[in-house]
């Protein structure tokens, strides 16, 4: 006897209802994606005003209106830098070199009373390297004078202080006169003052050598 099986009936597709939880979840996911993308684009385009150095700042310099300028930048963490939307802090100074155009980080600020540096004028008779300028880090060397006695041996040059910051380079017309030299003002830790001042009083020629890679 042959048994005839009923033909399979294809299921009818039903239009999804707004009550279908899958549809609701899909709509929510799309909405969140659109909102997240809009927030990311808006955040990427948002700028904040921060202070940047108008010229090179050296330790001990105060942040005056002439020393900084406001710039609008995009930052992931604007709180790390000094906001230009706030008044300049009158009781703080920079405690490290801040190059021209560099954003002023809050970590570069300190109390003036705690800055253990003193400005010393160092006369330099020979020509200066073009790399020696405000904010440069230099070593100060003393080359003793040649003894008057022909049989006496000259003392070798010696480093007096190393790794000090140039605060100022005197630049006037007198520098062009042969023999007048240049005066550098360098920031010296208090502990190194006796050695430097004694060397400057011993006589001889002072040379200033820039530390490689330290240009401001």
Secondary-structure content class:
alpha+beta
In angstroms, what separates the terminal alpha carbons?
103 Å
Strand elements, count: 9
Number of helices: 2
Structure characterization notes:
The protein has 216 residues and is an alpha+beta fold. The protein is 16% helix and 27% strand. The strands form three sheets. The protein has a five-stranded antiparallel sheet with strand order 5-8-7-6-9. It has a two-stranded antiparallel sheet with strand order 1-2. Strands 3-4 form a two-stranded antiparallel ribbon. It starts with 20 loop residues before the first helix and ends in a 6-residue tail after the last strand.
Topology:
Blueprint: H1 21-45, E1 48-53, E2 68-73, E3 92-94, E4 109-111, E5 117-124, E6 137-143, E7 158-169, E8 182-189, H2 193-201, E9 205-210
Antiparallel strand pairs: 1-2, 3-4, 5-8, 6-7, 6-9, 7-8
Comma- or semicolon-separated keywords:
two-stranded antiparallel sheet, single chain, 5-stranded antiparallel beta sheet, 27% strand, 216 residues, alpha+beta
